[in-house]
Amino acid sequence: MLYLAQDFFGVRERVAADPALRGRAVIVPPVITRGREWRPGRHVLVDLGGLHNPCWLPDDAVAYARLMLTAVRASVPPDLSLIVATSRTIAAGLDAPDVGTYDHATMLELMGTAAYACMTSGLGNIYDAAATGVPTLWLPAANDSQPAQARLLCRHGYCDAYLDWADIGLPVDYHDPTPVVAQAISRVVREVSDEQRLQALLAGRLAELTAGLGVTAGRARALTDRFGQGGTRQAAEAVVRWFERSR
Known about the structure:
Blueprint: E1 3-6, H1 11-16, E2 25-28, E3 43-47, H2 58-75, E4 81-85, H3 88-94, E5 99-100, H4 104-112, E6 116-119, H5 123-132, E7 136-138, H6 146-155, E8 161-162, H7 178-194, H8 196-210, H9 223-227, H10 231-246
Parallel strand pairs: 1-2, 3-4, 3-6, 4-5, 6-7, 7-8
């Protein structure tokens, strides 16, 4: 079995520490190509990708998306429009005219021309922010892996802004087992959704954290200098070499 991993903070160390991966793992640069320089337009992009997981019911994912969208709507300056991207299932649940599903090329175009973006902190979104240079606020966690990735960005200086549930007084212990974390996030989402004071607090924190975004390109842009780019070709070459050796 061949194990392919995109390079990121701690990946090489984790691979090296796992005896089962010795001789089977290939670490490749991010599977992105850095695009043209960021050119801010008059829209804010909300990317609600990565919400579906086996520990969440579809209704939980829709509830999270609705809560985030409500908060972002309340925080966006009136001279900027909103474009929201998510899966077809969640888009159907939200049933709003500015919510849609887009292919990856369109997403990169929307990021590269956004005044700023509010996104979930999955690795795909992180590296798309690096490819496009869009200034980004990373939204509160929708699973147990997202906060670790956002905190690594912050720790190493590649984060523009990050909002955690703890910032509105509702901390989640992300060290718990994955199903427990998912249940905790669901409880927090329901609590905030049912309490106008918490909704206002969430929107206020979003407004504070995004107030300075849109002046310069996002800090994630520099991830391509640290970890490279063009990993798609290197991953394909590694697969071909693996099959050739396995004959």
